[in-house]
Design brief:
The complex is a heterodimer of chains A (115) and B (113). Chain A has 115 residues and is mainly beta. Chain A is 0% helix and 55% strand. In chain A, β5 and β6 form a beta hairpin. The chains are: A mainly beta (115), B mainly beta (113).
């Protein structure tokens, strides 16, 4: 069964430091995509970064990078130089093509950035 | 600007009533989705639609119904039969391709009183 696991319910980081949010996934399908979304307290889901299963390079988007270790089935999000506005819930998700594109989500990690 | 609009933002329902949550998109996306979010849990798929006049049940469809009469619109009805409907509901749309991901609405918080 396809599954996303986020083992950190909450993380704390000081402003300007880097933080890693963990994500492991389970699928037997060779073709899949991995996403990270940010959910502020207002509730909307904001797309951060994407990694394809066949991509050779780790994805980067500004201060966000995805540490993709395919053999370990992990897709950790690294946020560099944390800002107060980064405080939010973060969800890892996996895209599967089971006849339609379906996103499977983890339970999320709440990040709190302190001054 | 293109996007997804969900309304209302907050909704209160008495037990025994049906209620409909609105979702409209102007992104020209073919696929639309409804997810439910409960505290401490991830998003769970309720229904999805790949094309107009077609939709399929997701993982937790019991007690919900949808329609897809227009490409832009995918309303969700929470029926009176649904137990524990209090939750945050998110609508999303996508191109339906593996690497595209979803665009989400801002959500509707439903409370049963």
């Amino acid at each position: 069964a396809q599954k996303i696991t986020q083992t950190q319910p909450g993380m704390f980081v000081q402003e300007k430091e880097a933080v890693t949010l963990d994500c492991t996934y389970d699928t037997s399908d060779p073709s899949y995509g991995l996403f990270w979304y940010k959910q502020p307290s207002s509730g909307e889901m904001i797309f951060l970064i994407y990694q394809g299963s066949y991509d050779q390079q780790n994805a980067t988007e500004g201060r966000y990078s995805l540490n993709f270790q395919k053999a370990r089935k992990s897709a950790n999000l690294v946020i560099s130089a944390s800002q107060l506005g980064d405080s939010a819930m973060y969800f890892c998700a996996m895209s599967l093509n089971t006849g339609f594109q379906k996103l499977v989500f983890g339970t999320g990690t709440r990040l709190l950035v302190s001054p | 600007d293109g996007g997804i609009t969900q309304s209302p933002k907050y909704l209160f329902r008495k037990e025994g009533q049906n209620v409909t949550l609105s979702c409209e998109q102007n992104l020209n996306h073919d696929a639309m989705y409804w997810y439910r979010q409960d505290p401490g849990q991830g998003l769970r798929l309720i229904y999805y639609s790949q094309i107009v006049n077609d939709f399929q049940k997701g993982d937790i469809a019991e007690g919900y119904s949808v329609s897809r009469e227009k490409k832009e619109s995918f309303p969700l009805t929470v029926t009176s039969a649904k137990k524990n409907p209090t939750a945050f509901y998110l609508c999303a749309s996508s191109m339906g391709e593996l690497d595209y991901g979803y665009t989400f609405g801002s959500g509707t918080r439903l409370t049963v009183v």
